[in-house]
Give the backbone structure.
Amino acid sequence: MPIFEFDCRACGEHFEHLVLPWWENAGKTPDCPACQSSDVQRALSICAVSSDNTRKTNLDRARKKSKKIAREKEVEEFKQAVEHANEHH
Ligand SMILES: [Zn+2]
């Protein structure tokens, strides 16, 4: 089932929500998780692309995130190595 991004018009919350197949035909949208308003609209950025692209975008985003974590880990290990080296001098 596709997950779409939504913007809440009441409070500006941006959130992702699973959309049931019949929702689209019924014009149904999920309620805002922040303020429970039903005044939400589908985020335009996702509207224009196919679900394949959406999946790829999410994958890229996840990959970038894990890369960042890996880099932070490297920095931490480097710091520890430097500290360790200093202890022996
Ligand atoms: Zn809201």
Notes: The mean pLDDT is 82. Residues 8, 10-11, 13, 32, 34-35, 37 surround zinc ion (CB under 6 Å). The chain has three helices and three strands.
